[in-house]
Amino acid sequence: MSEDPHTLLPRRLADAYVDELVELDPITGTYLGVPGAAGRLPDFSPEGQEAVADLARRTLGRLPAAEALPGADSDAERRCARLLRERLTAELAVHEAGEPLRAVSNLSSPAHSVRESFTLVPTDTEEDWAAVARQLRAVPEALAGYRASLAEGLARSLPAGPRQVATVLGQFGEWAGGSRGGWFSEFAAGGPQALRAELDAAAREATGAVVALRDWMRDTYAPTVEGAPDIVGRERYARWVRHWNGTDLDLDDAYAYGWSEFHRLHAEMRTEAEKILPGANPWEALRHLETEGEAVEGVEEVRAWLQSLMDEAIGALDGTHFELAERVKRVESMIAPPGGAAAPYYTSPSLDFARPGRTWLPTQGRTRFPVYDLVSTWYHEGVPGHHLQLAQWVHVAEDLSRYQTTVGMVSANAEGWALYAERLMDELGFLFDAERRLGYLDCQMMRAVRVIIDIGMHLELPIPDDSPFRPGERWTPALAQEFFARHSGRPGDFVESELVRYLGMPGQAIGYKLGERAWLRGREAARRAHGAAFDAKRWHMAGLSLGSLGLDDLVAELSAL
């Protein structure tokens, strides 16, 4: 750090933290597009985790002095200081409870971060591919560090859930399999001929490391954790809720809210289903759309179709409901690599926008893609959802701080905006037929169901008397999966993948609905304050330019815009 950390205002202190974090965690640097980050991977061992925690402690120790400096009382500095304190405190609570020592998840784990980092590295030049080769050769040490952390978790009686372990073992098998020698070999095959031998050898080393980790987890880890609970209980759940949502929720109130949304959405879904298949319930109508509704045939065709959907949305929304910078308008539709979770996802642009924001569709072996299931989802993942918010954050990063617009992200803020974006497109009339609107309501219903079952099963809450499903019983993962399957238009493998995701990332899945509620409350309060002068376009852009906020602060800040 070139400047005395004791003389930095909160925003500068936060960015100094990002600089030091990138040194410890090159994958974060890859996400941000930091030069030199590609070619390296983090130390996922207990010692590496402790180094990141020490950085958080040092930064928190410097924060009071930063807040006492002249100029630290501005709104910009105040917001950043609050976020930095809340985020680092939440992350340290998770670390000190030993949660990273049992980080097994079908979506978010060190192993998944390693693989995903290769989808984000530059690959334009021979020099870029030389860095890819170095990064491939770093995979064995990175995965060995991850294995050391899992082993330490076993030694400290901190097991991961058996269901997550079984699922991840299957994913590792898929990463290592295939006709071309595994996922890493397939990725390396895109490199230049001049580096062919080096890339192929490095890819074989990376694949060998995945096989070694899989075999250890199968032969040592899985038998040891057999019989451990998949659910986390109230104490661990509350800690994760703070981490993912930036607030200490009233969990009983949130559970009740999930049920109220379930009943509201169920009634709306019945109305739309009647238009599609008279006499059918919503899920019968959705199954009908799987085979008889509008669909896109072909993997490349669906990628191009999703690209056109986002391009059309940008054209319709820019200048009317949003005011978008030119570089924010660029977003790419991608097909996700195999062997991951079933849910689509988004990756942010690099800080210089050299790598654009990207949406990713897991095909799960399919070649036919019903439109009802895609439109609202791509309003969520792409435009006006994750892409408009997270790309706008990058666009204003120099005005706020890189911390507020990148690594300080609060999941519930971002997921809440994306779900609000789906609702906004419905309000604006973009879901113009019963198929698309039923698909939107099904997406909303999934998020309400997430609140119910994520809280319900991890806390083993009773199912209320007015439930259409097993009233009076207490939630278990098996009941949660059955309930989800009965109240979703998605196939069984998607439901299974989602449930394993909730078990491995407790408290994350509730942030969609609860974050949307925060955005709606903030908009309604701003409307009341401004009356007829309320300008939705101005409010949207101001809200998207706030940077990251936890749910503790989001409603108040949005209300004041």
From TrEMBL:
Superkingdom in the source lineage: Bacteria
InterPro entries, sorted: DUF885
PANTHER family linked: DUF885 DOMAIN-CONTAINING PROTEIN, GLR0591 PROTEIN
Name recorded for this polypeptide: DUF885 domain-containing protein
Organism placement in taxonomy: Bacteria, Bacillati, Actinomycetota, Actinomycetes, Kitasatosporales
